[in-house]
Design brief:
Layout: E1 3-10, E2 19-25, E3 31-36, E4 44-45, E5 52-57, H1 60-66, E6 71-77, H2 82-93, E7 97-98, H3 104-115, E8 120-121, H4 129-134, E9 141-142, H5 155-158, H6 187-200, E10 206-207
Antiparallel strand pairs: 1-2, 1-6, 2-3, 3-5, 4-7, 6-9, 8-10
Length: 211
């Protein structure tokens, strides 16, 4: 069963450079969404001050509107990996913010790639989040006051159950697994570095390797 990966952008973020966030669908119909907001705009921020947030929710659009995202793209993924994406989210929550190499764009790239989104532009070669968003393999849609992102199948019924609620906390015991391309010396990191070098040689750089 295909599931949805969704990227969000706030075009006015970061003084016009843009800001991005992620969402991905679980098999039960819920979504995980999140980002590192870095509200103070610092070039470096500790984990406790970088304004990381995430939530597992049936009401995705409301969470993104609350944080003033203004557009989104949906990509259908035939072979999704929600557990790998979630473990990447947990790992991101424990990494300090760095304006170069560990910013909102890097975070969304890692979650989307872990989930299984193909052909992602390599962040290091399109450093403006708003521009990077436009290069993603989806159809940009405005996120307006009336926008809803429909639930599928039984998810619409689960969302109305008395015990249904948002879960916006990461347990201290949650597994934090770095994406393979972020592990020093691992084959996937070598592939990632080769893609960076390929860009310098004039070769278009996208991520075509599923992990």
């Amino acid at each position: 069963m295909s599931l949805r990966a969704i990227s969000f952008v706030r075009r006015a973020g970061a003084y016009g450079a843009g800001h991005v966030g992620w969402a991905f669908e679980y098999r039960n119909g819920k979504f995980n969404c999140g980002s590192v907001e870095n509200d103070l705009g610092m070039p470096v921020a500790a984990v406790v001050t970088m304004d990381f947030w995430t939530c597992n929710t049936f009401n995705l659009a409301a969470h993104m509107r609350e944080r003033h995202y203004d557009a989104y793209q949906i990509v259908e993924i035939a072979t999704p990996h929600p557990q790998a994406a979630w473990e990447a989210v947990v790992w991101i929550s424990r990494q300090p913010y760095l304006v170069l190499g560990r910013n909102c764009l890097d975070d969304v790239y890692d979650v989307m790639r872990a989930y299984g989104v193909p052909n992602l532009p390599v962040p290091e070669h399109e450093i403006l989040p708003a521009r990077w968003f436009e290069l993603l393999p989806g159809d940009p849609q405005p996120l307006e006051a009336a926008t809803t992102i429909p639930l599928r199948g039984l998810a619409s019924l689960r969302a109305r159950l008395p015990g249904s609620h948002d879960d916006c906390d990461i347990p201290a015991t949650a597994t934090a697994t770095p994406p393979p391309w972020r592990v020093k010396g691992a084959p996937h990191e070598q592939d990632f570095l080769e893609r960076l070098l390929g860009e310098h040689r004039g070769t278009p750089v996208t991520d075509k390797q599923r992990t």
